[in-house]
Structure of FANCE protein:
Amino acid sequence: PPELRILNNCSPSQLEGLCSFLQLSVCPEPVLVRFCGWLLALTPSLSYTSAAILAEQLFLRRVLSLTQPPSRHLMAALTSFCSKYSQPFCSVLVAAVLQEPGKGAEQTKLVCELVEECLEPQCVQLVLRQVLEMPLSEKLLPVVQAMLGRQEVLPPELLDLLVLTLCRQAPAFATSLDYAKLVTAMLSVYQSQVS
């Protein structure tokens, strides 16, 4: 709808107010899918800041409150939004999910699925940087594993940081099967660069 062009003309605080007024954070999921479809067609595209605000308003509460796998509507909305605005999406939503201490398996599975199927290569690297800035935990190992599954070419400094992090954390994961799988995957995917 032409009315959506207003999203390009709002200041960040106006956009937050508009999202609140429209109750986008709690709108029904089928409406969310339709809204994300409209965002894909919006020209010109949203600015980084506007897309980041919308990522937070549309998805953050929903994703952090997941206690079971996301519905197909929510997944469709996430992948739709992510296909065009993956960088602000990762900066806002993925970072919040990874940093949330008490969040469980559903959030981690969702991030893994997005990494495996939706994110552009530079966003996969962004997520890996976000993971490596935190203390490595059992919760984060599957996310790194999903990234390695993409077999993306990593910049040398990021690969070095990954190797260094895994080496430093080895004693803490002495009995972890996920850690062993991760190291094995890394050695097979990047065997020519890891000595």
